[in-house]
Amino acid sequence: xxxxxxxxxxxxxxxxxxxxxxxxxxxxxxxxxxxxxxxxxxxxxxxxxxxxxxxxxxxxxxxxxxxxxxxxxxxxxxxxxxxxxxxxxxxxxxxxxxxxxxxxxxxxxxxxxxxxxxxxxxxxxxxxxxxxxxxxxxxxxxxxxxxxxxxxxxxxxxxxxxxxxxxxxxxxxxxxxxxxxxxxxxxxxxxxxxxxxxxxxxxxxxxxxxxxxxxxxxxxxxxxxxxxxxxxxxxxxxxxxxxxxxxxxxxxxxxxxxxxxxxxxxxxxxxxxxxxxxxxxxxxxxxxxxxxxxxxxxxxxxxxxxxxxxxxxxxxxxxxxxxxxxxxxxxxxxxxxxxxxxxxxxxxxxxxxxxxxxxxxxxxxxxxxxxxxxxxxxxxxxxxxxxxxxxxxxxxxxxxxxxxxxxx
Length: 408
Fold this sequence. Notes:
A 6-stranded mixed sheet has the order 1-2-3-9-6-4, with helices on both faces. The protein has helices at residues 3-6, 32-40, 61-68, 104-110, 113-116, 118-142, 148-153, 155-165, 172-182, 189-210, 218-227, 233-248, 250-263, 265-273, 278-288, 322-325, 360-377, and strands spanning 17-19, 43-47, 55-58, 73-74, 146-147, 299-301, 305-307, 310-312, 317-320, 382-383, 405-407. It is globular, with a radius of gyration of 21 Å. It starts with a helix and ends with a strand. Helix 10 (189-210) packs across helix 11 (218-227). Mean pLDDT is 92; it is low at 1-5. It is an alpha+beta fold and 408 residues long.
């Protein structure tokens, strides 16, 4: 999209296009570019490092919820477009649930809903708790110092999502390697796309094996849906890959949570002393942590729409920022303050509308288990290095510590 060929610069009243680089931010620092864009207005324009042209960016809470729940903004219409984007390799593919609109999107998600309802998640809670206890046991046996990321925060979400997916324990390592390459822009598009293709082929075999099992894991559900003609093979495997890589994002989210708690001991001490506060604290931490870099997937306006008084034309690409929405002072008073008593706390850390994270309930359960288990079982948990020596992942689409050295 060439800005200058469609409007006369002398009369163009649209906000300027701001370049948003792929920043390697550390700790829980809020993206300074996003903060500036929020100050400039509720609807601005951005250009990201990959793709072509520019896109609208919506940052106010009410507008983010409205756009994500409005059928006039389409994910499917992004197909075939080189919309400006953060990562070189997240190119829309036909059949991908992330780029589907209702009713197709509804049909795709229905195939795996049973695994991600509150009842479905509760079925794996005790197995998840046992897995977490075993990881903490091993860390304690090894003694301090330890790397909380490699010992607990990394393997735990992998174990849980693989359990939900129906992936055997011996294949968890491969899943982790593929996910790491898919969720990073530092390896290059070719490596990331090869990892995605290899994971897709793996789930092709697994869903065929599990199709007649009658199981309640995702591979079995997808295999049965394919056999019944409810999903195409492309749709089912695209959904499997999306859920698998999304499930492992908990590693980075929980890494940020524990970095924050370990560097603000007054917060940690309150959670130890008042266990009843913990569920609300998890919500507040989810609201506060800058869990991703820049923005996620775009939409296309199907018709002329006005958002916060700003006219958006049919065909324009649009991004929303959930990070910005979670810092909207009109909804979250003193948004820069971590308030475990914040109520209500209608954060959008897991998204909103039809594309609300399918594994949101599962991810929240994992965060609660991690907080309960580590605070109760390792009462002296503390950072083993100064905060500025904690290494952070570079080129990651989901921000998190590379390692979290701890002692107790």
